[in-house]
Amino acid sequence: MASTVTAERAWRGVFLGARNPALGEAAAAQLRAADGDVRFLELDVARADTLRAACAVIGAAGGRLDVLVNNAGIADPADGPPGKADIAAVRRVMEINFFGPLAVTQAMLALLRRSASGRIVNVSSGLGSLTFNSDPDFVFATTTVQPAASPARKVPIPGRPRVRRGCRAGF
Ligand SMILES: NC(=O)c1ccc[n+]([C@@H]2O[C@H](COP(=O)([O-])OP(=O)(O)OC[C@H]3O[C@@H](n4cnc5c(N)ncnc54)[C@H](OP(=O)(O)O)[C@@H]3O)[C@@H](O)[C@H]2O)c1
Fold this sequence. Notes:
The chain has 171 residues and is α/β, with parallel strands linked by helices. It is 34% helix and 16% strand. A 3-stranded mixed beta sheet has the order 1-2-3, sandwiched between helices. Strand 6 (143-145) and strand 7 form a beta hairpin. The protein is elongated. It binds NADP nicotinamide-adenine-dinucleotide phosphate.
């Protein structure tokens, strides 16, 4: 999480958000030792109370946020392909990786709007790319090009049902 504040006597620097205060403070101290103007902020993306408190701290430090970096994310080994993913694991991952950034962004929106050039950076992966997912040759696609066939010919991977990833609802 980055905050640049320009009002007179306001602090100008970077807030490092982390759910574990000991680890977060240690990371911020390490960056300060390397000349970074970094302050630790307790922030658990799944806990609304920490989001409210974080907003209050940023507001008190100068009142605006120029860049919000949503980086927190988890992977759960019980998650996996739709045919065998553990539903509870999918819920855990969605809670942090989807609802987390949504909740943080909503909480920080007022501070971001006070910036003349507010930015939100969502750290994601290729699996979240609409471009990649629209490409049948993408490594996680359910169809692939058969090397010996004409380049335009896409064939299903045996044993995998075809899934249409994007479709227009018609309105
Ligand atoms: N590494 C890859 O190959 C890869 C690939 C594609 C996308 N990404 C994305 O890149 C981002 C960073 O991943 P990484 O590989 O650097 O993973 P990482 O080292 O595990 O970092 C993820 C961080 O998220 C924090 N976090 C987890 N739950 C949180 C919560 N409820 N509230 C606040 N913070 C929480 C973790 O904090 P704790 O230290 O407290 O656990 C950890 O510091 C993620 O969004 C991930 O989806 C990574």
